[in-house]
Amino acid sequence: MKFVLAMDAKSGYNKFQQTHKAAIRGEKMPTRSWLRELRGSRSQREMAREIGISRTYLSQLEQGQRNPAPELAKKMAVKLGVDWPKFFEEGEPGDTAEVAE
User: Which fold has domain 28-97?
Assistant: First the structure.
């Protein structure tokens, strides 16, 4: 499954739906090493507080074990200066994690 970056809301929601369905089927989800990099020197705890989520949930997002809801992806994207559909794209080749059950 390959996703193409799109900036419009409809395409972003379509990506969300595709990755959500893949998670339900137990397929590997993309890790988000870019998310850790954009967090910079902030700890997971600090970043999670800024966004309004738990540190554990942020960790799961970074590891690709969970997908954020589109609203949360948008909030995080604004905070990090990225386009929100990026949360639902595939990572680099081989950059995957098993889906948490």
Answer: 434 Repressor (Amino-terminal Domain) (1.10.260)
